[in-house]
Every structure is written in structure tokens, then in C-alpha cells.
What does this fold into?
Amino acid sequence: MTEHSRLAPPPTTTPSGPERALAALARAGRRLRYHRRALALVAVLFSALALLGGLAGWLAAAGFVVMAMIVAGRGPVDKDDDDLLREAERARRGPGADREPDSWRLLLDAVPDAAVALDHNFNIMHFNARLEELFPKARAGQPLSQLSRNPELNDAVEKAVTANEAVVVDLYERVPVERRISATVSRIGGREIRRGLPFMIVSFRDLTEQDKLAQMRADFIANASHELRTPLASLRGFVETLQGPARDDPEARDRFLGIMSSQANRMTRLIDDLLSLSRVEMRVHLPPRGILDLNEVAAYVAQALEPVAAASKMKITVTRSDGPIRIRGDRDEIVQVLQNLVHNAIKYGRENGHIEIAASRVLDGSPPQPRALIAVADDGPGIAPEHLPRLTERFYRANVAASREKGGTGLGLAIVKHIVIRHRGELRISSVVGKGSTFSILFDELGTGTART
It folds into this structure.
């Protein structure tokens, strides 16, 4: 980065000729004012000489001179030209100017974005705590080029020297993590350099999380559109076939109507899941107020889905704890969580398989604390490890073909995740290929002293 030698030098404060003359007269007046007591004593001295005469008079005069010198020495010391210039500068800058260096630092500390103040050589004068979070190696006195070696930032700082408005630039960094930062470079005042005050302010805003959310929304819309477009295209094709070649073919008509009904049900499930996910997301910040027993909920879900499991030649069992396990929660939402997990176990488990719903108390955390646990386990084919971290993403499927064939929408585990978040719980997934999967949810139990409000 080039030194800021092109800037105009600081404006001089040397007074003009008339100002110097007025200052000299002021000093002479102050001197006469400071020594008027000594002059009065000298006058008294000479009056005494005239009256007394002789040796006594001279002794009295010497005493008066000493007293005059003492009194004159007690007057204020005359100020030199530098003091006068400093007073003139303070008067020009106005009251409170001596507090400016501290004031601007306090203002910079209060800025909500990461911000750094630079002098006219682009060296760091001060920075706030947010900037230190963004750039941990920031140090006062170092050039801005050492804070970030992005050439676009350096170019923006150069442009801001002569620009009439703030210069905004997007910085893309790859190391240590990929992120996008918006930097705003603003020159303070004009091109005048004021000692002790910053010449330029640079603020930074990390837009990485905002970009991720925008991408998630775009992906969600694209996936939802794709999931709806496929059955709609199928329905349109069968409708056109029934209106044309298959109009008078009863066998084809019955077969096509069955497929159309299946596709319509698929769209209905998708729309229901989308609405359910939207409702859960809107309420995720609201902690539930109700109280429920996990033993009772587990038994209810097992009984409700037993016919569905029997149709797939699977069996559901419930393992209860001794005594009720009460948590603060919305019963309908916890029922929906268990139903989604059991439905997944039925869809992707093995024929003649076994599904277990277990409610218990466990010690978890460091130091260990008692918590409530509800788990759904199956003995199906299991899930490969690389899929586990992404299972709760919207529309993510470990096996796309199998999921669509079995009527899955790809939103069930996303709904589970958001309901668990609303209940301040924790979802854990474990699986072994060929042996099965377990979906466990931990809650804070009421009455143990660990429940969160």
C-alpha cells in the first residue's frame, strides 16, 4: 500500500501580523496588571524617603523594595507565544475538544459491526471487539494491509481518500474458512488531517450466514417445486391418455385411475408436510407450556401405528420406565415426532422386522445430569455413516429411489428436528449397516432440577 504522501499537510495555525500585534498589546497589559502592586509600593517608598530622609529613610526604602519584589513575584507567570497559540486553537475547536480522542474511541466500540479506525498512513489506531472476533490477529499500529491482504480492500481504501461518499466492496475469503464479508470504507470529514483523530473508518459485516440461509431457501423452493412437478406431470399424462386412446378401454382406465390416485396422495402428503414444517418453524422460538408423560405418548403411538406395521409384517413393542417421565412439551408435536420416526422404521425396515419404542431416564452430559430419553430403534438394513449428518436436511434422502417408491417426502426428519429444537431437546442418530438404526431424543425432565424454561 502506498504512503498517504499525496494528502495536503495539516493546516497551519500561525497568527497573522495584526493578530501578533494584538497579542503583544495583551501581554503588555497583563504585565502592567500583574505588577501594579509593586509599582504602588515603589511610589510609597519614594514618599517615605521624602518625609523621613537620612539613614532611617534609606532602610525603610530597602524594606519596601523587598516587599514589592515579594508581592510582584506572587503574580501569575506571563504566558509565552506557544501558550497563546494553544489557547487560540482550543477556542477555535470549541468546548469539549480536549475530550475528542476518548469520545471517538467510545463511539467506535459501540458500533454493532466490526470496525477499525485508520490514520492518514492507513495504520490501525483503534478497533472494537467485533473486529477482533473477525480478525483475531488485529493489533494497534499495524498497517491495514496486514489485517487483510485482500487487494480489493486495499483498492477501496485508496479510492476512499478522494471519494465523496463511502466505498463498499465485497471480500471473498477461502482461508481458514470460506466466507463473504462486506467492507465499507468511509473518510472522516474532509482531507484535513487532525492530530489524534482517525482519518478513515472501515466497517466489516460477515454475510456468510445470510448467504447460507438464502441458498437454503432457494434449494427448498427448487426441491419443493421438483417434488410437486413430478406427480403433476404424471397426472396430466394420464388425463390426456384417458381423454384420448384409453377413453373406451375400461381396463386401462381403472389402472390409470389407480396411479392417478396414488400421485394425488403423494402431492397431498407433500403439501401436508410443507405446511407442518412451516407451522413448526414459525413456533420454534416459543417454548411449549404443556406437560406430558413420555410413557403414555409411546404407548399411544405404538397402538395407533400397530395396524400399519402389521400390514408390512413388522411388530412394534414398547419399553416403559418405572414411573412416569414428565417433560414440558406440546403433546401433539411429540406424538408427531414419534409417528414420523416409527413411519420411517416401517418404510425402511426389513420384512418381519422389529421396532422398539423405549422411554427411560439416563445420565448425560459433563457433569452427568439426569435426563429423559425417548428412542425408536429398528433392525433394518441401517444407514451408511456418510448420510447421518445430513438426514435432517429438507428433502435429503439416503436412498432417493426407495424413498419415492415408499411415498416418502424427504421432510419427516426435518420436521422432527425443528420440533425437538422447540422443546429444547437433542436428537441423536446412530446406525450400523446391516444391523439397524436408533433415533434418540433427550429432554430435560420436570422435577429433576435441570428443566430449562
Notes: The radius of gyration is 42 Å. Residues 295 and 320 are 6 Å apart (CA to CA).
